[in-house]
User: What shape does this take?
Amino acid sequence: MENSFFKANPEDFKVDENMKDVSTQESEIMIEEQKQIAELFDMLKIEDSSTLHESICSLQEIVSGLKSNNEDKCVQSLISLEDALFKTENLESVNDEIVALLMSLVKYERNSKIQLHALRCISELTVKTEQEMQTLVRNNIVTVVSMALTSTHPRSRIQAVQVLGRIAASSAELQTCVFKRGVLPIIFSLIEKKSSVSDLLVITHCLYCFCHYNLEPISLIQIIKVIGNIFIEHNDLQLLIKIAYLFSTLSRSVEENIPLIYCTDIASTLVKYAMHPHEKLAWASLNILANSLKRSPSEAEEILNAGAFNVFKLCLNSHNPRILSDSCWALSIIAASAYRELLLDLILLQKIMQIARECVESIAVKALWVIKNLTEFEDSLTFLRNIGLVKVLNPLFRFTEKDALITVLILVKNTLGNYPSLSDIEKAELRGKLEELKLHSNSEVSNFARDLIEKY
Assistant: This one.
């Protein structure tokens, strides 16, 4: 049942000044209780509720339970508070006294349930508003939760990891505070061969949260290797997908001087999972491989030696738009590199040209990049010319987006510039398309088309 005390109206708890029929002593006690309740309801921004009596009882029980010497009662109060925090989306502020109580209960190792549920309540508070986080910071959340990493209770340790990840992800300043506590080696020590998948998911996500803001290279390298080793050694699908998506994000954000493909095993593992039947895992692995091509020559060589090129070719037959798009993008990077000779294959280029002619524009333009990049080099352009590149240019003018049309025009320029002696029919066909683009609404496109007509 929903905790009703989070739905009460603070106005209902204002002190009744007309309590004439109650003794002075009883009146003072009731007034004081009502003041405390009204204050707590105001701080918690509690809304209207139809069950006023249940609201009062629930709140009183939680507040008294958190202070109780009865451990069972304290556990039940923590569970109630945790549930209420989870269900309440519009919570704007939290009473400092409640937070201070939670912090003290996190330190209470005599009872594993108390410590665990106190950490869970704090975890819920970390994903509320900035005000909640400030309240937690005022009560030394980083210090208290960091201490819980060495708790004698395994579940509390993992819960502390989750909380620290959420804290570090909230701001660069708090990330620095967390790292100053020296938590990284402790978190690493929690990873064992017998670690459950759920524990590894929490630890992996925490380490990823640590990377949200600038991190010193040595720590970042350690994190990448730890996450990578989990990826290599485990085969749980949920865990693999989680790590692959995290690695995919890191492959786009981490600086090139930080090695992402740090060993042959990680490269071969990514190649293997890029062909996995589960499309989420396949796409994320493929995306990492594609991003790694442009990160550094050493990483590009590592993944190509592991067989990534064959994966990119095979994925051109995928019906998954993201996989097909990233495969074309990866091949376009190879086309602009020293490995471009890998692409000088008639069947492969025919497939790429087919994608450029027939697929939706967002995918087709990436296939077009492959051809355009190849035309930048005389040896590959000669090959394209010999297999009839010019004959497939006209259908490429079907694009509507500016960037796609500019790519087509660059492709035409490269073709005409290196092979000006086109047949009259070929020239007439291209000129007709260029004349149409002279009237394009985008000035960059129209000017480019006009320049090509004048020059060639």
Observations:
- Confidence is low (pLDDT under 50) at residues 1-24, 40-57.
